[in-house]
Amino acid sequence: MVPTDSECIFCKIVAGDIPCARVFESDTCLAFLDIAPVNAGHALVLPKGHYPTLMDIPVELGGDLFQVLSQVGKAIMEVTGADGLNLMQNNYEAAGQEVHHAHYHLIPRFADDGLRLWPQTGYDDPDEMGRLAAKIANLME
Question: Which of 30, 52, 66, 68 is least crowded, fewest Cβ atoms below 10 Å from its Cβ?
Answer without folding.
Answer: 66
